[in-house]
Design goal:
Length: 127
Amino acid sequence: MHDAPSPAELISAVKSFIDDTAAPQLTGHAAFYARVASNVLSTLLREIEQRPAAEAEELAGLKALLGTQAGDSIQSLNRTLCEQLRTGSMSISTPGLLEHLKTTTIAQLSIDQPQYSGLKAARAPRS
């Protein structure tokens, strides 16, 4: 039986130590760097929790937009998308493009900058 802590549990334990034990005793630069370290760990936790679903959704969106075959990577499909945008063979008027770009941007911001002021508005359904 494999019962070791998961990477997320290990990161959470270190973050809790920094936030609850170490940081309250620090001042000046050390306190600042403790906040930076805590923020980095928060980002890593969001990566672990959110990235797999975000990448699966992005891959599905790219395949739908580009009509590609199975086996293409997100990186190669994004290069293809960029090339099609650069050459003008795809534009903002291409069906599904704007929604794909919005969805992938929201997913990335949710991981990198979840407190970004425009993120809540971007997530809200349009009426």
